[in-house]
Amino acid sequence: MFQKGEIYLAKLNPKKGNEVGKIRPILIYQTDILNECEHPTTIILPISTVLIGDTYPLRYRITKRDNLEKTSDVLCDQIRALDNQRILKGLLTKLSYKEMLEIDKQVKIVLNIEV
Q: How far is CA 66 from the centre of its chain?
């Protein structure tokens, strides 16, 4: 189904409080063990095209590529699970192994897990 590191569009509405909403790119973040067994929900990191500097470790900048139309920030502090029906078909792009290592590092900092 999905693979960790892939980016798709997803429906994040309705939003609550400071959560991000609307249809936006998301990064598939859960382990491929769950992805391969077609688990009904997927752990994701939302992506924003509103770029903000000096936000380490909260954001990770990715450049536009493939079908990702704008340079964007992965929101490392907004981890959430989505029902798979909210994820729209059509892969936008896939991040490199090196990019995913850096995102893993930033998420661990946000969650206070030893790096």
A: 16
DSSP E strands, 12-114:
23-28, 41-48, 59-62, 72-75, 80-83, 93-94
Instruction: Tell which phi-psi region holds residue 34, choosing left (phi > 0), alpha (psi between -120 and 50) or beta.
Output: alpha
Indicate the DSSP class of residue 100: H
For residue range 9-37, list pLDDT tens digits in order.
999 987 777 767 799 999 999 999 999 99
Its CATH architecture, for the domain 6-110, is Roll (2.30)
Phi-psi region of 96 (alpha: psi -120 to 50; beta: other; left: phi over 0): beta
**How many residues comprise the chain?**
115
| Token pair of 97 as six digits | 């192994």
pLDDT at 41: 96
Q: Which helix (H) or strand (E) holds 60?
A: strand 59-62
Q: For the whole model, what pTM was predicted?
A: 0.94
